[in-house]
């Protein structure tokens, strides 16, 4: 196992330009997966802030959501398609200041430096359609290997929202002794029927794009960007509340119809086109499908005798933080975690936005994090 600042050739197939110097890459070797398949030579990309204390007791793991990456804070620039997705959470004056050693890992199956479907398989060609099915448990198993390499036996805190919240809770279930405090935002103990249904719809939008080519599109002139953009449009509606969309866009028209045959383009359509196109330019469609299916696998209680039994061995502090207007991960899912594990704290984020509130209400998330780190 080794750590490097240059991406190993095996990870560099999907958009070579997306591998900046400040990101580090660790090889964690072969990973046996829940499916019974295995991934040889797994690489994880990660970024760090601060220093690990001599006692190794100040490490904080920040877990990103579906289309996030290891770039939690910082500018967009070479290698970083977007600015940090949780601005103000790490750095001087932020809750995660120099007292902490913060790590964010691009998830296994992702497309920002970690092994994913766009990486090279052992034959040198992209995995594409051959990439194995992943589960949230596989992703956490990979992250535990990275922690081993860095000499982190126990996280001071693990925090994440949505898919990052799934991994946070899975850390608690699969490595209870390695987590001090866990903060899971806008998530639940399992993927619901509705979440799986929305995922299916999005994955079908990708797979039915004529340019999908069964998933082996990397050396084609075009990929399934249109399908991915449709998937993002569908997802983005679920990430926002009905009331927010109504108040922001109502029935306003962005572009007037051209001629008698024309139809108006509603402002909300323009907004969804924007988000669909933006994601299609920065994200790999195969990764999107692989990660969506990993989210579908999420079920803390699976083969563990239920959620309560899965959380029983954890003696640390667990905080769950739903967004009150979240229709995709409704607050009842957090309440179920509280009911399953006595002592779990509930901190509700108030937002008009909906699910994306865990990203947009950064002040509330910062306050929550500050309180929890203080021990309140
Ligand atoms: C800070 C970042 O942007 S992180 C980007 C990387 N993203 C991730 O890592 C995933 C997490 N992030 C996300 O999912 C989303 O980007 C969120 C949650 C941060 C967006 O939330 P908000 O801040 O509420 O943004 P909002 O939904 O209002 O969208 C703003 C965008 O829509 C555009 N927009 C707004 N109205 C319209 C319209 N009628 N027509 C077209 N575009 C529109 C804005 O110009 C803006 O564009 P930009 O993002 O390219 O600057
Ligand atoms: N908008 C976020 C939320 C997903 O839960 C993302 O794209 O990662």
Automatic annotation (TrEMBL):
Question: Which is one Pfam family of this protein?
Answer: Abhydrolase_1
Q: Which residues form the signal peptide?
A: none
Identify the keywords attached in UniProt to this record, alphabetized. Acyltransferase, Amino-acid biosynthesis, Cytoplasm, Methionine biosynthesis, Transferase
Q: Known InterPro entries for this protein?
A: AB_hydrolase_1, AB_hydrolase_fold, HAT_MetX-like
UniProt-recorded Gene Ontology molecular function terms: homoserine O-acetyltransferase activity
Q: GO annotations under biological process?
A: homoserine metabolic process; methionine biosynthetic process
Active site annotated at which positions? 162, 326, 355
Which residues of this UniProt protein bind substrate?
Answer: 232, 356
Q: What is its EC number?
A: 2.3.1.31
Q: Which residues form the AB hydrolase-1 domain?
A: 59-270
Catalysed reaction, written as an equation: L-homoserine + acetyl-CoA = O-acetyl-L-homoserine + CoA
Subcellular location(s) of the protein: Cytoplasm
Q: Which GO terms describe its cellular component?
A: cytoplasm
Task: Tell me the pathway.
Answer: Amino-acid biosynthesis; L-methionine biosynthesis via de novo pathway; O-acetyl-L-homoserine from L-homoserine: step 1/1
SUPFAM superfamilies to which the protein is assigned, alphabetical: alpha/beta-Hydrolases
Similarity comment text for this entry: Belongs to the AB hydrolase superfamily. MetX family.
| Functional note | Transfers an acetyl group from acetyl-CoA to L-homoserine, forming acetyl-L-homoserine.
Subunit arrangement?
Answer: Homodimer.
By what name is this protein known?
A: Homoserine O-acetyltransferase
Tell me the organism: Janibacter indicus
What gene name is listed for this protein?
metXA
């Amino acid at each position: 196992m080794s750590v490097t600042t240059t991406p190993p050739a095996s990870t560099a197939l999907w958009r070579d330009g997306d591998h900046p110097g400040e990101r580090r890459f660790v090889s964690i070797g072969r990973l046996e997966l829940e499916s019974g398949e295995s991934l040889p030579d797994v690489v994880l990309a990660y970024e760090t802030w601060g220093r690990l204390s001599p006692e190794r007791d100040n490490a904080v793991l920040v877990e990103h959501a579906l289309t996030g990456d290891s770039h939690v804070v910082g500018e967009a620039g070479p290698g970083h398609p977007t600015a940090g997705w949780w601005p103000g959470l790490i750095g001087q004056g932020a809750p995660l200041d120099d007292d902490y050693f913060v790590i964010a890992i691009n998830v296994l199956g992702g497309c920002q430096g970690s092994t994913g479907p766009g990486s090279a398989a052992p034959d040198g060609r992209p995995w594409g359609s051959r990439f194995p099915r992943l589960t949230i448990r596989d992703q956490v198993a990979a992250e535990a290997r990275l922690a081993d390499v860095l000499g982190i036996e126990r996280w001071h805190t693990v925090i994440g929202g949505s898919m990052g919240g799934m991994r946070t809770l899975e850390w608690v279930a699969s490595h209870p002794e390695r987590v001090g405090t866990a903060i899971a935002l806008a998530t639940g103990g399992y993927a619901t029927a509705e979440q799986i249904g929305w995922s299916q719809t999005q994955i079908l939008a990708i797979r039915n794009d004529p340019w999908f080519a069964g998933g082996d599109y990397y050396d084609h002139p075009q990929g399934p960007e249109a399908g991915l953009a449709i998937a993002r449009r569908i997802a983005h509606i679920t990430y926002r509340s009905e009331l927010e969309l109504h108040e922001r866009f109502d029935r306003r028209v962005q572009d007037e119809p051209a001629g008698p045959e024309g139809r108006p383009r509603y402002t909300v359509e323009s907004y969804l086109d924007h988000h669909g196109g933006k994601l299609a330019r920065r994200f790999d469609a195969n990764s999107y499908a692989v990660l969506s299916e990993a989210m579908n696998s999420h079920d803390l209680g699976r083969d563990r005798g239920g959620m309560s039994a899965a959380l029983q061995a954890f003696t640390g502090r667990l905080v769950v933080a739903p967004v009150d207007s979240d229709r995709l991960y409704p607050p009842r899912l957090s309440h179920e975690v509280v009911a399953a594990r006595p002592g779990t704290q509930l901190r509700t984020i108030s937002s008009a936005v909906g699910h994306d509130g865990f990203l947009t209400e950064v002040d509330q998330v910062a306050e929550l994090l500050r309180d929890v780190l203080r021990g309140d």
